[in-house]
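User: Run a structure prediction on this.
Assistant: Running it now.
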Amino acid sequence: METQPAKNISSYIIQSQEDEIKRIALELHEGVGQTLYSLYTGMQFIQTAVDQPEMKGYIGDMAQMIEKTIQEIRLLAVELHPPALGTLGLLPALKSYLKLYTSTYGILVELQNEGMEVQISERESITLFRVCQEALANIARYADTMNAVISLHWKPGQLSISIKDKGKGFDVDAAMKKSSGLAAMIERMFLISGKCVISSKIGEGTSIDITLPVY
């Protein structure tokens, strides 16, 4: 167990990282993304003004490449820091992210929400989102499945979240020694006085169970 000063230092480091991630995501979306969009519209205008079929086709291909790059940057910006997280909260941010997640990986994720939602801090929302994001990334990388379920259950004094899949599963003890991502999930929840329990059975699937005190 960490001492309180160490916990405070870890919290400060993670918060500093999140602030920088938020800044980069904003720059990608509003800076680089907007510049590329201006280039894209300019290429479309040039395409309409060009008479030579070969050149028109070439410019069209360039415009499509720019459009694809814009979509990739928007996805990256949302993965780094969903705009809805700070304004609308955890649930809308998860819904927004899951749409991109499914379109990217082809994995359908059922999102369930039960109970009376309680307002939580932005720091707690970011932490919960990051843990869910890591769990979903692991499903895409390793689970070999096309379906998953995220369940949020609000009850007096506690929010419980479970992320489950029926993929190929893994040896948790062995994975904990190799994966910094799994350890980071547990550490992040500890820093906001929550818990993260990872359980898995080979051939049966994996369950990530998160709990957070809410008031």
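The longest strand covers residues 147-155.
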